[in-house]
Amino acid sequence: MFNKAKNASTENKAATLIAAEPRSSSSPPPSNNSARSSLSVIGSNTQVEGDINSDEDLTVEGRVSGIITCKQHTVTLGANGYIKGDVFAHTLHVSGEVNGNLVALHRATIHKGAKVSGTIIAPCLVLEDGSTFHGSIDMNPDNDVLKSAFNDGSVSTKTSSTLSSTSGSAAPKTTTDKPAANKSPAAQHDQTEA
To answer: Which of 7, 9, 39, 61 is the most buried (most CB within 10 A)?
Structure first.
């Protein structure tokens, strides 16, 4: 009455189609390019005037005048790069010149040859020998500016104005005319206020 071979063949086809269906509806496997994090670069011959909001790593080789917001990623300022304005990032690497405030959620590194004037707020700070810094440092992870800048989704004008009034960006609280020495940032900060 029943032909088992015929029914088995039909069942196998149905099973094959059902098994193939989830594979075709799922997204394709990630390619090598999407596995790498994305990066934006402001080239050495580029000048940007205005605020920058980035949801990827950002490298600045040119000149930027404005607020840079890159809260979940890394901002890198190349040796010939220049930033006039505040920078908010997860991690900062500065090799060029900054005239503004740096706020890093995780770490800020001021590399040899860098020139920074303003306030640095970061729970972890590295000032390499040969870097120049004028301003104040706050490494308190509970800093109000740090909390308000990274708790909501955007940098508010309140955060920027609080930072400006805290830092006195026109006239920094402390001045270090010498390159950074082999001292911890806290020890160097204490020395500059003496």
So the answer is: 61
